[in-house]
Amino acid sequence: MTDKQNESYVEDDEISLLDILVVLAESWKLLVFGPLLAGVLAGALSFLWPKTFESVAILRISEEEAALVHSAPVLDPLIAKFDLLQDAGGVQEDAREALKKRLVITVDKKTKLTTLAVKATSPDAAQALAKDAISLLFAAQLPIGKEKAMIEKTIAINKQAIDVADDAIEAIQRSLKKGQLSDWAQESAIKNLASINSDIAHRNLENAQLAQRLQVRGAEVYVQEPSLPQRKSGPKRSLAVLSAVFASGFVLLLFVFVRKAIASAKQDPELSGKLDLILRIVLNKSEA
User: Fold this and answer.
1) Are 138 and 59 found together in one domain?
2) Phi-psi region of 83 (alpha: psi -120 to 50; beta: other; left: phi over 0)
């Protein structure tokens, strides 16, 4: 009994496979020439798509700093300068989203270098947009408000302390030159002199670091400045053609099998009734 059942299953599988081959054979022209036509049309239409060029810059900045490229303080001035609001139908948020897609950020986890790729319709426009985006990015990193005020206050306090320390050094040096101090007093004065000099050096270094935070970063950050692209980056016609061929081939293959299934269902009374029920449900929902 089991052998007969297995033979029945094998026969059913063979019939199903043969049915599939028959369906494919009956529609081979549609399945072959349809995707080819779609690919030709996609290739022809790609000549009408606008060309894009990509300017690339490599920077020594962190991932958190690079993320500011997609912030409003960077995007909004770019939208205004390059008149991108009109392309977005006058909607600021849509203009921001469109511009974000043109400013692509990638961070190399090994080298910690950040790559900014900027797309535009001409080489000069791509390079100009990249330069302005980076300039605005550096400006957005500057401290503002209370943070800026605190840095400036710290610098002023350090300068006052350095002035006082300089006066103390002069007084100690005068005392040492007179030679009227005891050995213990001279040793103490020399220790104080070394301590004061160390404190001055520390405060000068801190002031230099704080002053650097108030300055816009420049050439020291660049590994590669925004390039002037020589070749277009898009559209990629080969990719468009292949995508059209595979997509249309899948849709046509699905259409062929659905058409065959509907034709088979109409010949079976039970399946035909189910098909009519489905059509009525769909039509009722569409009318509602």
Assistant:
1) yes
2) left
Q: Please give the span between the terminal C-alpha atoms of the chain, in angstroms, as a whole number.
A: 53
Domain count, the chain: 2
Tell me if 7 is assigned to some domain. Answer: no
Contact 86, 275 (CB under 8 A): no
In a domain, 258, yes or no: no
Neighbours of 59 (CB within 10 A): 22
Domain region containing 105: 53-142+220-224
* Tens-digit pLDDT string for the chain (288 aa): 455 445 444 444 444 677 777 878 888 888 888 889 988 888 787 777 778 899 999 999 988 889 999 999 999 999 999 999 988 889 999 999 999 999 999 999 899 899 999 999 999 999 999 999 999 999 888 898 999 999 999 999 999 999 999 998 888 888 878 776 677 877 888 888 899 999 999 999 999 999 988 888 888 899 999 999 988 876 676 777 888 889 999 999 898 888 877 777 777 676 666 667 776 776 676 665
Please give the C-alpha separations between residue 264 and each of 70, 260, 269, 270, 275, in angstroms, as whole numbers. Answer: 56, 6, 10, 11, 11
Q: Kindly report the pTM of this predicted structure.
A: 0.63
- Which of 168, 196, 194, 190 is CA-nearest to residue 182? 190
